[in-house]
């Protein structure tokens, strides 16, 4: 039975299912493989934590040893960008903590295959009871399965990014009418052109550190009352939100 950690880290549920399916498929299609684990991490918006799925709790623990020490086939494979194979851990002393833990559960051979896609890093870890049993694993079905899973995760990531962009565009479209209405009020009260009105709204957004849509909504609700005072309010003045620290320029929120 496949074991996944209680905390799976950021990201959608389908990613966890992909990892689970990949680990199970490797055990199914590689007779010499007694178990498998998969880790996923990286990405600009993600924490340093790595999501893990394994076909047995002992193998999840072996992954944990490597992540805790920062030493083992996972780190070696991800750093080198190529497969890392240990033919017989009884005679391979490269990773002392991992080696001791692996031998403690009867694992003698390992093969780790890294895959980098769309800013994320996926590592597939194969384990064998017999020395030398995973020597050719890096070029067999596991490599194809890992590449397919990594490509699927990359597609998911692009899909999420596209959905986020669509959401931002929809939000901008919803707020645009009220911004245009507020600009019309500013043009009337201040007797100015459209460019000057929008510039005044943006300046008020900057000085009060509020979203432009919120500034516009307040002007529309007030129907232009006290508008001159609102637009002339200095940064840090009465009723104004404190500006950003260290003299940094204020942000404009739409």
UniProtKB/TrEMBL annotation:
Keywords: Transcription, Transcription regulation. Residues 159-220 form the ANTAR domain. SUPFAM superfamilies: CheY-like, GAF domain-like. One of its GO terms (molecular function) is RNA binding. Signal peptide: none annotated. The keyword Transcription regulation applies. Pfam families: ANTAR. Gene3D superfamilies: 3.30.450.40, Winged helix-like DNA-binding domain superfamily/Winged helix DNA-binding domain. The keyword Transcription applies. Residues 232-254 are annotated as: Disordered. It comes from the Bacteria. This is ANTAR domain protein. It comes from Streptomyces rubrolavendulae.
């Amino acid at each position: 039975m496949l074991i996944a950690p209680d905390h799976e880290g950021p990201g959608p549920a389908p990613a966890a299912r992909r990892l689970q399916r990949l680990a199970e498929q490797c055990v199914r299609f590689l007779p010499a493989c007694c178990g498998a684990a998969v880790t996923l991490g990286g990405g600009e918006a993600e924490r340093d934590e790595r999501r893990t799925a394994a076909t047995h709790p002992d193998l999840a623990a072996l992954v944990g040893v490597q992540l805790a020490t920062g030493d083992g086939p996972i780190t070696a494979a991800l750093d080198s960008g190529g497969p890392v194979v240990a033919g017989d851990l009884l005679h391979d002393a490269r990773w002392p903590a991992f080696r001791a833990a692996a031998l403690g559960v009867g694992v003698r051979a390992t093969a780790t295959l890294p895959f980098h896609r769309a800013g994320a890093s996926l590592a597939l870890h194969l384990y064998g009871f017999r020395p030398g049993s995973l020597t050719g694993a890096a070029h067999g079905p596991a490599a194809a399965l890992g590449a397919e899973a990594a490509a699927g995760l990359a597609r998911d990531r692009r899909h999420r990014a596209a959905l986020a962009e669509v959401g931002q565009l929809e939000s901008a479209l919803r707020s645009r009418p009220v911004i245009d209405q507020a600009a019309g009020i500013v043009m009337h009260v201040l007797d100015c052109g459209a460019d000057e009105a929008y510039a005044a709204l943006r300046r008020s957004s900057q000085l009060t550190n509020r979203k432009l849509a919120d500034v516009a909504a307040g002007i529309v609700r007030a129907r232009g009352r006290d508008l001159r005072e609102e637009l002339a309010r200095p940064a840090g003045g009465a009723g104004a939100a404190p500006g950003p620290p260290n003299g940094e320029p204020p942000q404009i929120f739409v």
